[in-house]
Amino acid sequence: MSADTAALSGRVLADGFADRIRRWSRDTGAPENAARVAQCTAFVVSMATLDGDVCTDLSDIAAALNDGSDTETVRQRLLESGVTGQPGQPGQPESRGAMPLILDQDGRLYLHRYFDYERRLARSLAGRHAAPAAPGIPASLGARLASLFAANRASLGDAADWQQIAVAMALLGKVTIISGGPGTGKTTTVVSLLACLLEQDPDCRIAMAAPTGKAAARMTEAVRLRASHLPAEIQARLPTESYTIHRLLGVMPAGGRFRHHAGNRLAIDALVVDEASMLDLALATRLIEAVPDDARIILLGDKDQLAAVESGAVFAELSADPSLSAARIDRIASLCAMPGAAIQAPEPVAQSGLRDQVVWLTRNFRFASDSGIGQLAAAINSGDSAAAIARLGADTSGTLQWLDDGGPVPRDESLQAILAGYAAYLEALRADGRNPSAATDAFARFRTLCAVRDGARGVEAINRMVSKHFRSALKHPLDPGEHSEWYPGRPVMVLRNDYVLKLFNGDIGIVMPDDSGALMVFFPEGDTGFRAVAPVRLPAHETAFAMTVHKSQGSEFDQVLVLLPEDHNPVLTRELVYTAVTRARQRVTLVSGAAVLEKAIQTPTRRRSGLPARFGELRVAGEAI
């Protein structure tokens, strides 16, 4: 489905919902002017959720009405509509909370289910935060921590080791949010934490999960590689598989319900979620509710990456306050055998929902301080477009290339850069067209990342262009011709989970002939193996020479080429450019006009939400936080 088709479909659904709300309001006996305001509100809030917002506010409704109504008039009309609840207000019956529209005390407007998700998520996290996970820590755990981070200690001297601090925080609390960019050691931190948990309790039941199949597979592999230095008895007890969140919760075919939920919780003692920035509000709520109250929850992600495709920016909101109380600093210092004065962190603010639970990893082990990619990412992240463009234009390290190409159709220089990126893959196919291992390794080195799907600078056009080039260059005898999309060497990305085939959203396979000469799609399996799947059996899929930046989350490549559209687009944000650039380990080529790039870097994602307010309401109500 194209972006235009999806937008039209969303608008049609929002219109239908708004009409239903107007009829509902009339049926309650509400005045016609109140029913009209309710209809407008239903439409505006529905459209906002399609854009990723969880809520909107009264001023948006007043502007949409365009009849001179001020926000107070809108508020009164909504409360007269018979379809708007206002939880927490004196005199409001509890049943009003089940209304289809919700108006909170600060003027935020919600669809009921999103307000309910926010309230449930805040309540679930707050309840866990109230009780420490470990009133006492065995002395042996301190020794284990010291040995795990001895190398860091040698290089840091008296400075705080935030990886070690993150592990200590997770041992001391039930909820820990760890945010860090690529190369800041999140996986190393998690492996060290798992080792400590298993030393403390050899029977600790640990689940690892990620939002997508690709991210889950990468998590499994990363943990396996980082764990090689651990004692054999610890390695033997580490989890051997990471699950998609849907698979972990036990998604049921009918209705999208889960087998595990607040009433039937997971049988685990600890949950580690990677790429948590991809969690939308609904999935985050259902996941946290399914975890037992006495289990630990560790969320890993990058607060500066793209938010979820669906509504909400849960991880960014939860990780916004990396503050530590004096009491927690004392406990961390004792456990880590470091001076408390070295642990510099702001004091928690009164409204903090997760004080003592958030840590930012900022030391980069992948990019040196003078790294072109690292400096570019830092400039983008800070919104300094001038510094970013200057860094692109003045790079002498060979890690950055900027093609100042902003026309409607990419110039030949840009297209040739894309084809050059896949030259090693083409040579691997020419050398041995039946070796999926060599082909997969070569293909994984480079990727073209697009901001959009449609148009000459989008995913679909680039995939067509590269496919045409490959078919012409290979001239493979088993290529059935232009009437078929299947040809030897075609890379294919799965778009939908298939638990029977064990193929997951984001998995990439290579089309090759099997021993009988039939074209099959070869997917990696295990450390060195591959399995062949017939094309007709694949779930939804597409060619994968180019992918959207959203689809690239959870992946890394040696080199990436980032292709931005010719004009500014609502999807073009600072977070999108940052996410695209940080997919690269060695080299980034950025194809964009200067004005579009500058505007994107200066446009941070702003998703409206009331999650911090929900924590505040729990505090006022006296519920433990």
Give structural attributes.
single chain, 625 residues, alpha/beta, six-stranded parallel sheet, five-stranded parallel sheet
Q: What report would you give on this structure?
A:
The chain is an alpha/beta fold and 625 residues long. The protein is 42% helix and 15% strand. The chain contains 25 helices and 20 strands. The strands form four sheets. A six-stranded parallel beta sheet has the order 7-6-8-9-5-10. It has a five-stranded parallel beta sheet with strand order 11-20-19-12-18, with helices on both faces. The protein has a five-stranded antiparallel beta sheet with strand order 16-15-14-13-17. α1 (3-27) runs antiparallel to α2 (32-50) and α16 (372-381) runs antiparallel to α23 (574-581). The relative contact order is 0.11.
| Mean residue pLDDT | 89
So what's the overall shape? globular
Low-confidence stretches: 93-97
Number of β-strand runs: 20
Q: N-to-C terminal Cα separation, in Å?
A: 43 Å
Helix fraction, binned, reads 40-55%
Describe the biggest sheet?
6 strands, parallel
Radius of gyration: 26 Å
Strand content: 5-15%
Classification by helices and strands: alpha/beta
Please give the order of strands in the largest beta sheet.
7-6-8-9-5-10
- How many helices does DSSP assign? 25
Condensed summary:
With 625 residues, the protein is an alpha/beta fold. It is built from 25 helices and 20 strands. Helices cover 42% and strands 15% of the residues.
